[in-house]
Amino acid sequence: MEREANQKSSENQSRIFLTGATGYIGGRLAPHLLECGFHVRCLARSSAKVLARPWAAHEAVEVAQGDAGDKERLEQAMRGCSAAYYLVHSMDVAGSEYRAHDLLLAETFGKAAAVAGVSRIIYLGGLGETGEGLSEHLSSRREVERSLGIGGVPVTVLRAAMIIGSGSASFEILRYLVERLPVMITPKWVDTESQPIAVTDVLFYLVAALETPATVGKTLDIGGPDVRTYAQIMREMASALGLRRRLVIRVPVLTPRLSSLWIHLVTPLRASIARPLAEGLRNRVVCRSDEATRLMPHECLTIREAMDAAISQQESGSVETAWSDAGVMPGDPSWAGGTEYVDRREVTSRATAAAVWSAVTSIGGNRGYYAADWLWRVRGAIDRLWGGPGLRRGRRDSKNLRLGDALDFWRVSEIRPQRLLVLTAEMRLPGVATLSFEVEPFPSADGKSRLIMTARFRPRGLAGILYWYSVLPLHGLVFRGMLRGLLRSAEQGG
User: Fold this and answer.
1) What is the DSSP letter of 138?
2) How far apart are CA 377 and CA 389, in angstroms?
3) Calpha distance 212→215 (Å, rounded)
4) Which of 66, 219, 249 has the alpha carbon at shortest distance from 155?
5) What is the CATH T-level fold of the domain 162-196+224-319, as seen in this structure?
6) May I ask the CATH architecture of the domain 13-160?
7) Stretch among 8-17, 32-41, 318-327 having the lowest mean pLDDT
8) For residue 9, is pLDDT > 70?
């Protein structure tokens, strides 16, 4: 019995509770923890979204379905875990409400961790000078740090500035601004100093902090070896992309609000997410102490090395996670009325079901939609003007899709390999739209297959009904051409 008790205690010590497992950092941290021999229990609003990750099949992975705001569920899910990672933020909450929502979630988490018997919490926060003058975003990060400790559980805080990695929000903002704007009219914040860090180095510190007892209860600044202004970082990005040196013109009248709208129009980020980031750019974000490197010795990548690694991963199609991964999975909405409009189209292909499926799962991103791409671009531009994601989010991988992936202004809400793909629209609409693709092999042995494409729309009020009938004439052009293009790609082998 004593041996069994010791074994159970050892298992508890190695069991780690992870929030944000489907987000940008959490989705990369989970496999790192598994490689280091830890058991990982993930909290997720959608267990299916976690289980779609390649590392989720590992025998040391557990999935607890629930919401970070449910204290009782949190307490239950955290029991038996020795440490917990808090990788949650509410920047996708509308307006300035994200700050209050973040505070509430952190307090709930800290209290639940204490009741569950968790020995420590590890949190990834934001760098920034202390005292007055912090942006609302960075002030919120400080409040979260304090709130996590409200239950008495020691909190290790790792503060980082810009994180450079394939698929990160910071990297995407930089890349889009530099690629699209040879001449940049910028606010004064381009002269603010920052100390970026590669995502691989962030992951090192997150795991090393767990394995280093001296980090318990500490607040540690982490950053790469280079301190640069944002103007210098943008020029470095241009060089890494093989572009000409960008001309930066500073204009003092550009406010954070105007900057966020500009970022919204030029990059994939929505204005609601871009604004708190833009406000934070006025704060100098440089490490004030080298305690992190003394406790956890490590040689970090330079800015250029981090950029080169990120670009290489994007070009090779090996992006593990993207900033858009953390979107909420579509649930069962409350419909006004219940009317559902359906546009169903069916075609037969000489190609095998596997070839048709490969073509279907390659739509969007750089490949486009096989027909009337100019109409898709117009629709994406309109969506961006209305505050939606537009087409610029692209897709994480050019060939493979998984549950929860963002695909331009869609999200993968259901996927059954080789059979069914359902995309739910995240564009601004007066209703909810889905686009599904069903692939069926013919019973005969001639290798033929059938492709069924169905557009469904459930309107909200009169505006939704008018919207459906206004776009219906375009379906014949767009969807017929799309089906022909899909079949052509499948029959020609991609």
Assistant:
1) H
2) 12
3) 6
4) 219
5) UDP-galactose 4-epimerase; domain 1 (3.90.25)
6) 3-Layer(aba) Sandwich (3.40)
7) 8-17
8) no
